[in-house]
Amino acid sequence: MTKTIRPPGPRDHAFGMRSLRRMQGDFLGFWREAHARHGDTVYVKFGHVHYYALRHPDQIRELLVDKADAFVRWERHVDILAQLHSQTLVIVLMVWSLWRTMQHDQRQSERKEKEMRKKVREWAAKES
């Protein structure tokens, strides 16, 4: 029998009920902590349902755009989240995560560009 390899995530031996309670108390805090501890892809199991939470913009794009036809979107899940936390919150979480990662990437590229300009100036000074 082949063992399924899943991404890391919070361990909950109560069929996900502890995680669900924590999530209901502080939805954003739950996912912020889960991603901080386990990385960009987090796996959580509630009862018999498996959830994968993605944070990295490349993963989100791959799921929602590049491979959208390969995934089944469980409309009932979206309805439940919208009732519990409002549809806006679900969208805001995705957009916020994307924006934050893009800001980080932009700062990194600005730093690299600054370092490159410094190296070019140093090289030019040596040559003259």
Question: What does this molecule look like?
Answer:
The protein is 65% helix and 9% strand. It is mostly helical. β1 and β2 (49-54) form a beta hairpin. 7% of the residues are buried. It has a two-stranded antiparallel ribbon. It has one domain (17-127). The protein starts with 16 loop residues before the first helix and ends with a helix. It has five helices and two strands, in the order ααββααα. The chain is elongated and about 70 Å long.
In a nutshell, what does this entry contain?
This protein is about 65% helix and about 10% strand. With about 130 residues, it is mostly helical.
Please specify the SSE layout and strand pairing:
Blueprint: H1 17-25, H2 27-38, E1 41-46, E2 49-54, H3 57-66, H4 75-85, H5 87-127
Helix pairs in contact: 1-2, 4-5
Key terms:
2 strands, mainly alpha, 128 residues, 5 helices, elongated, two-stranded antiparallel sheet
* General shape: elongated
Strand content: 5-15%
Structural class: mainly alpha
Low-confidence stretches: none
